[in-house]
Amino acid sequence: MSKKIVFLGCGSMGEAILTGLLSAGTPPQSVTVTVRRAERAEELAQRHGVTALASNEESNANTEAVAGASVVILGVKPVGIAALCREIAEHLDPGAVVVSVAAAVSLEQLEGALRPGQPVVRSMPNTPLKVGRGVVALSAGTTADEHDLAAAHEIFDGSGVVLDVPEDQQDAVSAISGSGPAYAFYLVEAMAAAAQEFGLSAETSQVLARETVAGAGLMLAEPGADAEALRRGVTSPKGTTEQAIATFEKLGLPGIVSAGAKAAAARAAEITKELAAQ
């Protein structure tokens, strides 16, 4: 990708996306980043070779950056997205694709703060993008065509798996893949606590739980991997693992996970309404 790409805001998630983009072959000289602090701008410029501007020193950094851009990634916090869109709206090329990585900000809110007809794509990335194993769900706006969606795909292709979903499924995506890494980390915490109940040291318990879940994740990442088949492969009839799984079922673990995901999705919908009311 040789077109001009701009990141407005570049925290840890934005930098993960930037790293994947550059690793996939995008030349650093085609990328411009804006952040608030000069120290952060200098850090990004030195680490990645991109052009980095600090809005605390250059008040028009955002509007200067988007001039002539083909793709603009909005990486600020959700509460600041609408104001950022209004700030840059008149400075965007009509065909520039605006990609939001802000959770819970709807396409309607994004399009309402930009000029009519501006192509917009909403994304839901998750934190494993930082290690190149993320998953990203994209939803195209009302005027974004297949070429605009393809441009958004190129931004994330170097950081993980990219899927297209209707926007009304974004809250579900957020509940499963967006929040999902925390569920896995929570499982590790629970496994480590159980290990300590057996009398294992805290250090040994952490290693056992962490490396087991990390290793299982690598097995799931193999082509054609199926979670149920992998589970059955470990669960010998009348064996120890079968007893554990049966206990999880009896205590309602699948229902607990489902209830938690539904609560996360409901909260995402609430946040969207709160942002729209501001």
UniProtKB/TrEMBL annotation:
Q: Which reaction does it catalyse?
A: L-proline + NAD(+) = (S)-1-pyrroline-5-carboxylate + NADH + 2 H(+); L-proline + NADP(+) = (S)-1-pyrroline-5-carboxylate + NADPH + 2 H(+)
Sequence positions that bind NADP(+): 8-13
Q: Which GO terms describe its molecular function?
A: pyrroline-5-carboxylate reductase activity
- Identify the keywords attached in UniProt to this record, alphabetized: Amino-acid biosynthesis, Cytoplasm, NADP, Oxidoreductase, Proline biosynthesis
Positions annotated to bind NADPH = 62
* GO BP: L-proline biosynthetic process
The UniProt entry, under Pfam families, shows: F420_oxidored (PF03807), P5CR_dimer (PF14748)
| EC top class, as a word | oxidoreductase
Task: Write out the annotated subcellular location.
Answer: Cytoplasm
Record pathway: Amino-acid biosynthesis; L-proline biosynthesis; L-proline from L-glutamate 5-semialdehyde: step 1/1
Family label: Belongs to the pyrroline-5-carboxylate reductase family.
Q: NCBIfam families of this UniProt entry?
A: proC
This chain's function reads: Catalyzes the reduction of 1-pyrroline-5-carboxylate (PCA) to L-proline.
This chain belongs to the protein called Pyrroline-5-carboxylate reductase
- Species in which this protein is naturally found: Arthrobacter livingstonensis
Q: Which gene encodes it?
A: proC
